[in-house]
Specification:
CATH superfamily of one domain: Winged helix-like DNA-binding domain superfamily/Winged helix DNA-binding domain
Strand content: under 5%
Order of helices and strands: HHHHHHHHHH
CATH topology of one domain: Arc Repressor Mutant, subunit A
Number of helices: 10
CATH architecture of one domain: Orthogonal Bundle
Shape: rod-shaped
Largest sheet: none
């Protein structure tokens, strides 16, 4: 029995010594890894505060070392070393990226959003908002088919637009200011695009006629006209002059018939 006890104690001592050696080896490897990480961090800190020329030189040497390591890799451990190197570079790049870029928080994008995709107020880069911020409220206040004449400096054109019918004002607003197509205006007013085209032609005829009358009166009074107004008179004088002559002849005929009947 004593011999068996002695042999058992010797085997226990042997196992204990092996465990001690394994623990010491693991501790040494951990110390070496910590020292290696310290050296790498020291190199990165030195390059962070180094001038640009030294940084560039250090990066070039690191690239050359990585390419040599990749070319000389033959065993599984060598490839693992290359992979660890690339993982460290990717982690550093991601860390530098997150330092300079503001990412999304944990709050979802639809948090607090209004229903039916309605945004109030409108985007701040809109023209009206830029003018309101500067203190110019006229374009925003008079952005309406029935008040758009307030934005026109020429009194003759403003009065001509003001005297139009409400339907004509609406079509003129959508086509001239909003730049909508005939199909869009027809869809808004529940009409055909041909009908909208006819309405636009009648609006232009009325405006041209009223503008011709006002410019013709100014020309007879020897008032100054700009180049565009002169060109307008030259272009539309034959049209409206013939119509005025025909109307005058009709009125004279009616007067003569009335005098004869009397």
């Amino acid at each position: 029995m004593q011999k068996e006890i002695v042999s058992f104690s010797e085997t226990d001592d042997y196992d204990f010594d092996n465990e001690l050696l394994d623990a010491l080896e693991m501790e040494r490897s951990a110390i070496q890894e910590m020292e290696q990480e310290k050296e790498e961090n020291a190199l990165t800190e030195e390059t962070a505060f180094a001038p640009t020329s030294r940084k560039k030189l250090w990066r070039d040497t690191q690239k050359e070392a990585l390419t040599r390591l990749e070319d000389s890799a033959r065993t599984e451990d060598d490839f693992r070393n290359v992979q660890a190197w690339w993982d460290r570079l990717d982690a550093n790049a991601d860390r530098r990226y997150h330092y300079h870029v503001i990412g999304r928080s944990d709050v979802p994008l639809e948090w607090g959003a209004t229903p039916e995709q309605v945004i109030v107020p409108e985007p701040i880069h809109h023209v009206f908002w830029q003018q309101i911020i500067k203190g110019d409220f006229l374009d925003a206040v008079f952005d309406c088919p029935f008040e758009m004449h307030e934005l026109i400096e020429n009194t003759d054109i403003a009065n001509a637009i003001f005297e139009l019918k409400d339907i004509h004002k609406e079509v003129l607003y959508y086509s001239a200011i909003r730049q909508y197509s005939n199909q869009t205006i027809a869809h808004i007013r529940s009409q055909t695009d041909r009908n909208i085209l006819k309405v636009k032609n009648t609006i232009l005829k009325k405006l041209r006629k009223k503008l011709y009358v006002s410019l013709h009166e100014r020309q007879q009074m020897n008032l100054s006209l700009n180049q565009r107004e002169k060109e307008f008179l030259e272009e539309y004088t034959p049209v409206f002059a013939d119509r005025n002559k025909a109307k005058l002849s009709d009125t004279n005929k009616k007067r003569k018939t009335i005098e004869i009947n009397n």
